[in-house]
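for the writeup, i need someone to sanity check this before i put it in the appendix. the sequnce is what the collaborator sent (i think, or maybe the updated version? ugh). structure was predicted straight from it, no edits. if anything looks off just tell me and ill rerun, i have time this weekend
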Amino acid sequence: MQERIDFKTEDTYKNLNPSKKRQWRRQTKFLEAYQETRSKSVSATYAGVTYRTVMKWQRDNEFGFTERLEDADFAFCEGLEQLALDRVRMQDAKSNPVLLIALLNANLPEKYRPTVVMNDDTAKGVMYELRKLAKDSDKASVSDKEEEDVPAIDQVSKILNEKGGMA
């Protein structure tokens, strides 16, 4: 692994051979585009390299590429967050922030993605309500005791049929 080269280490860049200098410049060009797009394929095309080359850079971590990629990724997320704040400040009653929320959820999930925990009693509650509706229905032809012996799926189908549903 080579030492990371950045603006603090210009002397190291000067000592590279022409091929390595070209690689450094392409990596830098790729990272500039990646910071704006967060797309490896688009950024690779912009830098004049293939996607596989980018994956090799990342695997080999030459010139500290992996850390520099993480920095570019972080900068993209920070820019997105700043855009969100700017839009919220400019928002009016007609604004629809759905796309922005989706981008924040995708790019900063630890901060913006809601944590949803399903309660195990949800299905039981639904079945209880369906049974209650069936019992209260004027058209219910099954007695309470017989209804308990009928499988749940049959009960749901029967209720939907009686209500003119989709079963």
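Residues 130 and 136 are 10 Å apart (CA to CA). The chain is about 70% helix and 0% strand.
thx in advance!!
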